[in-house]
Amino acid sequence: MGKPLPETVRTAFLTIQVRETAAWVNSSLCILMKTIRLFQSTTCNLNPIMETPARDPQLWRMAKARAKFKSHLFTYFAVNALLWTIWALTDRHSHGGIPWPVWSTVFWGIGVFMNGVGVYGGFGKSQLSEREYERLLRQRTDRI
């Protein structure tokens, strides 16, 4: 066996390992916490590519509402296609009158349409709130 390392070398080596491990743990925790959005800290030394850019809150809400609407629209088409397929393969010739998938297609379609008007048509809650706020602000300045 070789000669053991002097105590100072072993201590220095362990200190370097501990510091590197602590830095790795710190950066890993920062990434994890930013990922689950527990805090928005500027003290974490993360790669700037990974940091989220500053967002306009109103545009971010609109983008989320539009993405949610698109998801809802896709679900509407997929489920209704499945219902109409089931009707066509099973029940189509046994009953006269209106096919049963019409009801879900029409009434759910009304809901999807209203959701689309609210998201894209300028009649959403946030737009109405902004208009009401501006109206109240004008009334207030007219009184003064």
Automatic annotation (TrEMBL):
Pfam families: 2TM. InterPro entries: 2TM_dom. It comes from the Bacteria. Keywords: Membrane, Transmembrane, Transmembrane helix. The keyword Membrane applies. Residues 63-137 form the 2TM domain. The chain crosses the membrane at residues 73-90, 102-123. This is 2TM domain-containing protein.
